[in-house]
Each structure stands twice: as structure tokens, then as C-alpha cells.
Amino acid sequence: MIPTAWSRYQLSQLVNKALSLPKPVPFDFLLRGDILRSSLADWCTQNGVGEEETLEIEYIESVLPPQKMADLPHDEWVSAVSCQLDRCFLTASYDGQLRAFDYSQKQTWSTPVHRAAITSFCIVPNVEACIVATASHDLTAQLTRISPEDSSQASKPLASLHLHTEPVSAISANAAGSQLLTASWDGLVGLWSTEIPDEDEVAEPATVERKKRRKVEENRPKRKAPSLVLKSHTGRVSGVSFSDGDEAYSCGFDSTLRSWDLEHGVCATTITCSERPFLALSVSAAAVLASSTDRTVTQYDLRDPSPNASVTMIHPATPSCLARAQTNSHHLLTGAYDGVARIWDLRSVKTTTPVATFKVWDEKKILSVDWRAGGTVAIGGEGGLGVWKAWENNT
Amino acid sequence: MDARSKQPVTVSALSKKSMGKRKQLDDAPAPALLPQETLEMLSDEEGADQAVSDDGQVDEFPQIDAESDEEDTDEDDEELFESDDGSENSFDRDIFPRPKTIISDITGQPKRVYPEIEPDYDSDSSTEDTQNRVGDVPMHWYDDLPHIGYDIDGKRVLRPARGDELDKFLETVEDPNSWTSAFDKTAQMDKPLSAQELDIIQRLYANEVPDAGYDPYEPMVEWFTGKGKEEVMPLSAAPEPKRRWVASKWEKQKVMKIVRAIRQGRIVPSKPKTSAKLEVYSIWSEPSSSHPPPLPAPKPRLPTNSESYNPPEEYLPTESEREEWEKQDPEDREREYLPKKYSSLRLVPAYDQFVKERFNRQLDLYMAPRVQRVKLNIDPSTLIPKLPSPQSLKPFPNYKSLKFDHPSRARCLSISPDGAWVVSGDESGVVSLWEVMVGREVKRWKFESKIGAVGWCPRTDVSYFVVALEETIHCIIPPHISASLFQSTKALLAPPTLPPPPETPSPVKWVSSTLTSDGPTLSVHLPPSSGLPKQIAWHRRGDYMATVSGSGLHGGVWMHQITRRHSQAPFKKIRGVVQLVLFHPSKPHFFVATQQYIRIYNLAEQKLLKTLMPGIKWISSMDVHPSGDHLIVGGYDRKLCWFDLELSAKPYKILRYHTRAIRSLAFHPTYPLFASSSDDGAIQIFHSRVYNDLMTDPLIVPLKILRGHAVKDGLGVLDVKWCPRHPWLVSAGADGAASVWCS
Fold first, then answer.
1. I want to staple B406 with a disulfide (CB 3.0 to 4.6 A). Which of A125, B420, B426, B525 is the partner?
2. Higher confidence at residue A286 or residue B70?
3. Which pLDDT band holds residue A329 (cuts at 50, 70, 90)?
4. How many Å apart are CA B632 and CA B645, to the nearest integer?
5. Nearest to A365 by CA among A331, A315, A325, A329
6. Class of domain A67-389
């Protein structure tokens, strides 16, 4: 029995005392999937819960307002960021360059990879070298060996992936680093192996300047063909991802989410929504989170192919990117075109307000977010790269 | 002898107006004074002129009433004649100016020179307007000359300056006399009509005799008949015919027929008239048959328990009931009284409503209509037509997803057929290519002059867009397209073997430039001074493209065929200034919008099919429904007209919802949506469902007003276009922003 006049602070004190924690930790409280923001009595009257009922209150560790750590402006818009490498942030931008920044906010390394804008990149897990796969507007994706720690060593393009006839929008590697998925505006999803072939698998289109080509023969990447082409999308494919169990998922502007049977190259499951062109997706064990242009981020259960969302998060602007927390699978970070990044708790299914909101730029679009284990958040977009600290602990 | 002959004339003239005086003159001998004075005056001046002036004088002689005596009349006469005297003298002077005799420079002979006539107040007006002495020759002989004739001195009379149509219009507004002026051929200018001429025109309008002095009702002059002129002598000496005195047999037969009928009683002589005495009869005795019987008067209500002076307690109102009753209007009350309790009949006061109640009862009996009046209780909300809620008509754009900024006013934009790229042009000559979903500019072209229109070729096997500048149209291939697409586009725009030039040389030049890879691949040079092309309209197959220039030959409309590299003007001559053109989405029809009308031509048969009259003062935009059966037209006067092309030449619906001029209209190619943008900075989205069933009218539902563009220099949103596959809208505003609106 606790007094109904209590609000979050009193409940948090109670939990701290009950757990006899050495250092007080702020907690938030979930009541039937809703985060408690006022007193218990207010919540009861708002939700029509009688005074006689027994309420089950779940406590979760609260997310403190994130703090800005660094702002690294770029000349061009940053289309993708990654903090998977140790001790540095990698960014890909619209001028076709990859850049690396260390923790002292210095640009340690940069290399041009594509002639056109890079839309997306991923780091291929590899024990020997650091290999990056980039997708670009120039209709190809590319595998490049880079060495961001050692600035003396030049990066080497290993292979270019030739399949798509329109700009490649997303690229993703599986956990083992053996396979790659690319998504393109032409509605195709390509499956590639990461092995570098010795010969060109795709013939080069006949060009007049043969002599010039000879000169750069050594440095030229090998032209690689896909191992499988997955055709099912009727519109632009905007996002593609491997799950932990090496299943492939894709989402597109045709308002579908698809999972793929990679052995047979056919579409295994399709979730068709109505008028919800998807922009990005993130896959966890059995749930797929996808952001769409109707300003929502929704969670779908792939075991149930009905288009009923289990969680819907409504944004005031177009959510362009999303990333799950590395350690705490309940937390989700989304970036939107209004320059505001939001952290959501997937357990509070009812609420439409995020647990934390921070404005990265004023009226500048966020195009990519990434979350490093330990709570550092990298945000890339129109204003460059922003690094923020979001506390994240396991409870 | 002259004086003697004049005297009777004067006398008769004097007496013409008053017959009474004439009699006096005739009867009585004339007084000695009168003839003497007249004689005196007449002896002063002589000649024919005098007689004329005398006659004129007589006409103007004032009416004299018969009672006035002779003396007065004579005095009047005297004065009048005297004044006449003076005026005659001055008249004489003016008509005959004294000539001077000088020696001519040319001939050496003496010649008479008359002084110049000064155009003063009382100069003759007939000398003014005959400055041009060219005579009765056709004036078009002088059409090519700077002058229009010669004056009396043989000098050239220069052509007066004539304003254009606008001046004429302004003159009609500003000059109050302009509507009473007419074009004078001889002077080649507008001359105001004189009061007499206006009077003639007014008389002609009123179907009257144009001459003001003509009196159609003047008394008849009896020349041949009348009193004293009777003919006495018979005209012929023939004897009287017999029929003049013998009774007619035929008439006798007729009379006898009537007599016989009277005798037999077939004709009854009329009854003697009854005396006009009122007969008394009962008006209530028998009911009038034609009308339904009147309703019985309503009966007064019987009193109930509550009207008792001592009603039971349960009839008495509570305090709240009493308050409620007092608050209500007398008409709305259920009862006219409140029950009251008195302990004894003694204490009951006089009934205060007695007079009023009797009066109402009398009204009921006497004046009130005996009809049960049914009050109409209509909820106004039910009269509003039922429209589906906008929520049920999703998807439609409802928020601004992103914004792309131009350095100056964004004029035009176009979206690629796959819906991925937007190309937008502004007034400083910048053309930008950017992604719809991210808004990142991928490439930028800079031109010297401002961009009039951009248009993306609707073909999917090639990819290029067209930018219209001042007198030039550039075809540009966008970057980041696949090699095969690039090759086919290159082969189309810059083919290795040029197609044969047309037989007749065209003023439009097609130039391929292969120098720079990122510049325009193909340029079409329109004839000089054709102005900025306002619009590019593509045919659905992407081979033909129509452009509308601001000025130039053939209404500024050019039709370009890309494969044959050939341009032609479809119209030799077109009435009005062409605003817009459009291709029909399925038929070979061509819409041409001038300022007020829309004409539909069949291009295959080369003929005019239809003329639509939207009733808009100045058309600014139009778009055709993808089915091709409906057309929307917007105007600068804020109106939007929806035409059903199979229905009539008049609009099916006229909507006026923008507060400023409509700038752009667009139908979505697949979704049932259309959008209109306006100078008030707002974009309005409409649901427009068109049914295949011809009996069902199109459904137009307003969905959303998108605000977000700033109004700059009185200009708002200049162009809107839809993304082909999604319900997304892209708009270009005068504030330099190009915005993407997502659902």
C-alpha cells in the first residue's frame, strides 16, 4: 500500500531504500506500459483506474538528459556514421569521402572512396584487416581496406559491387563478416559474399580510353557480381539488415517489410502496411523496427505477418534513422529531420513521448545515428557529426 | 416707294400673333403715332437685308395678351427694333472686314489682304473645324504620310497624335466628355459632338424626327376647304340616279324578317329596367359552395386543478420550477400561469391577465388563420452536404518533411518519372538537382538568365530534363544514371547521324554540344525576341514537347520533336495571348489557354474541337485529370473551375477558396488528389474522385491547407508538383524555398 499522492520521486526513493543501493539511482516507473509522469492519483483518474484495483508498478532505470560531448562540423552532409571501430568515429559524407575522428575531436584520417555521394556504409567484421563496405549514388557499392589508425598506409579499394541500375541506398554486413546485403532504388536487394575475387566477375563496359585504364590496373578494384539477387519489392528499397541469426530483412517505399530466405533467394515473410513508405529499419531477435515517412517508428513482430504494430512512436518530423542500444535492448534512438534525436523505451508501449529528447542542431536534418556500447551516441547529418553522452546502464 | 410697300408687311406681321389686335386694327382707324414711327425707322435703312431681319424679328416677337392696350405694345416694338438696330450694325462690321491693299512679293501686283479672323468669343464657329482644306477625298490617301491635308494657306496639317488602346481606355475613364465625341475623318482625331448633334442622336434614339424645329402637330393650313371655300357649283351635271329615291327591296326583306320574328315571339323586346333598390338577403343563410367550410374556432381550454385558487400541494411549483418558468419566454412556456395557493376565496385578487386573455381570444376568433401552422424545425447542420471526413481519405500530404533553399525566388520545378529526383530552377539562373527524400543537392547548373520552366522527360528508357531560358531550351542529362541509360539518352540527344533537316527552314536552331560532359547536351535556340518560355508541356510518350514563350510569333507556342530535331509552330495565327498549353493524356488533343478561354484542338485532324469558357478574368494555371475527361483551371482572380469535358463548355464547379491569386495546379497521376498553390502562401490539397459511372458526379473534398511558405513581394507558392508514385507534394515558393510535403 503506497499513498496515491506519490509521484516518481517518492517511488524512486522507496526503491532505492528497498534495494539499499550504495549510491542513489534515479528510477522511472511503468504502469501498464505507460511511464509515470505525474502523481499516482492523477494517473489513475486519467486512465480510469479505480481506487480499489491493484496496480503493478515496474521500475526501470531512468534515462538522464544526454549531454553534448563534441560537435565536429563537416564541409558536406554526413550520410552515415559508425562507432563500431575502437577509439574512433567513422563518417561517410555526400562528397564521397570517409573520415575518421578520434576522441580528441581531431580528424585523424580521410580518404575518397566514391566519386558520388556515399549513402550508407558498414564495417565488415574481419580479423585480419579493417574492411569497410560503402554504398553510393554512383550505382555501385565498394569494399575498401582502410587503416584509420595508421595514417601513413593508404586505403585500398578491394572490390566494387556491380548490380544496381539506380543509386544504392543501404548496405549491411552479417555478424560473421561473410555476407553483404545491398538495397537500391531500383527495387533489388543484392546478396554478396565478402571474398575478393582474383578476376573481374563482371565485364567492364567498352570504353575508348584503354590506355588510361591500363595505368591504374594494379590499384583498380575487382568488379564483383552478386551471389544472389532478391527481387520482390515493387518500389525503392530503403533499408536492409541482417539479424543476429543471419536472416535478411529489407524495407522499402512500397510499404512492405520483407524477410528473405537466403538459400532459395525468395521472400519468406512479407508485412504489407498501407501507405507507409519505410525509410530505415533495425532488426532484433523477433521484432523489426522501421521508420516511415508518416512520421512514425513502428515495431512489427515478424512471427505474425499481420500489419499490426506492437509499438508506435509518433514523431513531429520525418524520422530518418534509428539505432538500438547495444547493451540495453529496450532503448531506441531515433533521429529526425527537425534536428532532434530522441531516446525511446520500448517497454512503455502506450506513451507517445520519448524518455529523452535532445536537440542536436537547429532545423538541420539528422541522417544517421549510431550507439556505442557504454552510452556514447554519434549523430550525423546536415550539420556534421555530433557526439553525445547518454547514460545507459544495465538494471 | 419702298417705305410704302413695307408698311403693310410690318402691320400684318405684327398682327399675326394676336388675332384680337388685328381686329382692332381693322375696325378702328390706325393711330397716327404707329405708322409714323415705323416709317421713320424704315426710312433709315433700306435693302433686302432689312426685310430679312424684319421677318426674323417678327418670329421672335413675344406673345401679347389681348387685354394689354395699344400703347404698351407700341413701346415694346420700339425697344425691340432699337436693339435690333445695334446688333445689325455690329454684324455688318464683322462680316465685311476692311481689306488692305499691299504689293505682292511674287507678282508685284497690288493685292487685297484681309485681316486674320480672330477666334474670339463671338467669331463664327464654322471656321474652326475646317482647318483641313483637303476636300472630299478619301482620307486613306494620307495614311502613309505624316500630314493629313493642307490648310487654307497651303500649309501641311500634321496628323494629330493618336494614343494606343490603353490611352483610349484611360480616356474613357478619365475624360467625362469622351463618350460624346466622335472620330472626325478630316481632322483624323476625336472631336466632341456639339449640343445640337447630341440632340439629333438622342432624337434618333427616341424614334423622333431628328429636326428639333419640326413640329408634327402644327395646325393644318386649309388651302382648299374650310369656311368660305365651299364649292357651290356641282362637279357634274348628271341627273340623280333612281336608287337615290326608290326604297330598297332588300332592306324591306330584312326588316320584314325581324318584324315576323317579333310577331312570332322569337325576339323578345328588352325588359324594362328594374329600379336600383337594394334587396335585403341573409348572407349566412346558405353556405358558399366553392370554398371549404371554415374551421370552427378553437375552444377555450377548460380549467384544471392547477388553476384552482386552492390547488393541492403537489400542483404548486417548487422554487427552481418557478425560476425556470420566469426565465422562459412567454411563447415557450408550457402554461401561462403559475399555480398559487390562497387559503380562502376572499383573498384571491382580481385576475390580472383578464383583458389580455380576452383580447387574444378575440384575435383567435376574428383574425387568426384557421389553419394549423406547422413550424419547420430544421437543424442548419443537416443542410450542409455530407462529405467524407478527411481522415478516411488518407493518404494525402499533411506535413512539411524537408526544405531546400534557393538563393532567389524558386520559379519552377519538375520531378523525375521515377519520383526520386527533383530539379528546380530559380530567378538567378540556378538549376538544382536534389533528392526528394533527403533534400541534398547533388548537382547545380548556373545559367546567365532566369529560368522560366523545367521539365523532366516522361520517358523511362532515357533520362534527361529540359531547362527553358530566355530564347533557349537546354536538354541536360542528370548524373548517376546507369551506363546503358546514359548511352541511350546520349544517342537520343546527340545522335551520331543527324536526322535530315526539314524541307522548310525553321527559325528554331538545334545545336548539340559535346564539349562538356556536365553541361547541356542539346540546346534549342528559339527565334530571337521570343522571350522567356513560361511553360514546358510534355506529351506522354516523351517525344513531343510544347513550350509557351511570353511573346513572339504564332502566339509563342512551339512544338518540338526530339527524335527528328524539328520544331514547328502549330498555330499560324491565334487570337489572344497564350497562357498555357497541355497535351491530352490519351487522345491527340491539345489544350490551349488564352487569357479567358480554353480551346481544345485535335492535332490529328487539325481542327478546333471545343472552346471552354471558365469565366475567369485571367487564367494562370490548368491541369488535366489523368483520365483526360476533366480539367481544372485556376485564375489570378482566385477562382478555380472544374470542367467535365464531356458535359459542357461551362464549368461543372467553380471554387473560390484562396485569398489571393492561384499560381499553380496539379493533379496527382495515380492518387485521387489535386493541389493548388496561391499567392497567399498556402497550398490546398483536395480529394478529387472521378467515377467511371457517368451518372455520378465527381467528388471534391477539401483535405488540407499546407502553410509554411512565406509570402514575399506579394508572391507566394509559385509551383507545385506531385511525386509520381507517392502522395507527396513538392512546392516552389517565392521565398526561395522548395519544400517536400509528405503524408
1. B426
2. A286
3. confident
4. 10
5. A315
6. mainly beta
Q: Measure Cα distances from B730 to A329, B433, B450, B480, B726 in Å.
A: 38, 13, 20, 22, 11
CB contact under 8 A, A116 and B725: no
Distance from CA of A234 to the nearest CA of B (A): 11
- How far does the CA of residue A394 sit from the closest CA of chain B (Å)? 35
Contact B395 A275 (CB under 8 A): yes
User: What CA–CA distance (Å, rounded) separates A89 from A97?
Assistant: 14
Chain A environment of B478 (Cβ under 8 Å): none
Flag if A235 and B727 touch (Cβ within 8 Å): no
Range(s) within chain A of domains with CATH label 2.130.10.10:
67-389
Query: What single-letter amino acid sits at B614?
Result: P
Q: Do A137 and B442 touch (CB under 8 A)?
A: yes
Residues of chain B with CATH 2.130.10.10: 397-742
Beta bridge partners of B101: B112
Give the helix, strand, coil percentages of chain A, each rounded to 5: 5, 45, 50
The reply to whether B514 touches chain A by the CB within 8 Å rule is no
- Asked if A295 lies within 8 A of B399 by C-beta distance, the reply is yes
Instruction: Give residue for cell 554519434.
Output: A378
* B585 min Cα distance to partner chain A (Å): 24
CATH architecture assignment, domain B397-742: 7 Propeller (2.130)
Which class for B553: exposed (0-12), middle (13-18), buried (19 or more C-beta within 10 A)?
A: middle
Give A279's contacts in chain B (Cβ within 8 Å). 437
- Residues ≥6 apart with Cβ < 8 Å to B564: B499, B502
Neighbours of B487 (CB within 10 A): 13
Residue A193 has pLDDT above 70, yes or no: yes
Q: Which residue of B has its CA nearest to A206?
A: B483
Structure ipTM: 0.87
A389/A372 Cα distance (integer angstroms): 10
- The answer to whether the Cβ–Cβ distance between A294 and B479 falls below 8 Å is no
Residue-wise burial string across B221-241, b where 16 or more C-beta atoms lie within 10 A, e elsewhere: eeeeeeeeeeeeeeeeeeeee
Strands A156-162 and A222-224: parallel
Alpha-carbon separation of residue B80 from A11, A189, B60, B76 (angstroms) = 125, 119, 10, 6
- Cβ <8 Å between B438 and A139: no
Contacts of B694 (CB under 8 A, 6+ apart): B646
Is residue B696 within 8 Å of B716, Cβ to Cβ? no
pLDDT tens profile A254-310? 889 888 888 888 888 888 888 889 999 988 776 888 999 888 888 888 777 676 777
Contact A386, A361 (CB under 8 A): yes
Torsion of CA B328, B331, B336, B339, to 10 degrees: -20
- In chain B, residues with a C-beta closer than 8 Å to the C-beta of A293 are 401, 437, 726, 728, 742-743
Residue A129 — φ and ψ, nearest 5°? -135, 170
B216-229 pLDDT per residue, tens: 888 888 888 888 88
Cis peptide before B395 (omega within 30 of 0): yes
Q: Do B742 and A138 touch (CB under 8 A)?
A: no
Q: Within 10 A of A343 (CB to CB), how many other CB atoms are there?
A: 21
Contacts of A294 in chain B (CB under 8 A): 395, 742-743
